[in-house]
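Could you help me review a protein record that somebody else here produced? What it holds is a sequence and that sequence's fold in token form. I need someone to confirm that the token line plausibly describes how this chain folds. Take the sequence as given and treat only the tokens as open to question. This is what I was given:
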Amino acid sequence: MLLSVENISKSYLVKDPETGKKMPFWALKDVSFELEKGDCVALVGTNGSGKSTLLKIISSIVTPTSGWVKIQGSLAPLLGLNAGFHDQLTGRENAYVYASLIGIKRKELRQKLDEIVDFAGISLFLDTKLRSYSNGMKTRLAFSIVSHLKPDILLADEILAFGDKQFQELCLKKMKDLKKSGTSIIMVQHNEKLIQSICNRTLLLKNGRLSDPDFN
């Protein structure tokens, strides 16, 4: 068992627009599931259903109100364009920083750096500060680092929403290769066709709770 999520709940205090009083809002409520080696799980649901909050809790970015997460092995989150990146550092420097955040040694990254840069298509900008990168370039770099270093668990929040069609196809192929090699993936995705092409399970969130999926 690579990942076990047990009775995760997360609440925030929000102001009632009618009374002005603060009241709890449950972004997640009693969410439980397990992830096996080589699983590829689609996390689906409407905006505000709790998908990103759940991934942030699994990544230890957000602390749950109750429940716990148990992880066996390395975990790499791709949860936003700037997650783990620093605009004042170059692409090369960010690659080393990002790798260290997910537990990858400098020697291992150094051995893979040429492949990472070639896949991301940023060789001309490797020593340019990240603030000059487009959103697509940042996403390509982050995905390339993670996919070439093969973590045990990959969390991807709409990672295929950026970049051109050619790069999206490369990403999809790479994720299929990762799955075959034993990496487990949880991906937030709304494209049903894409989900069916790679995912073996679907988790549907409705109002912060797991529900029966609309498709498998």
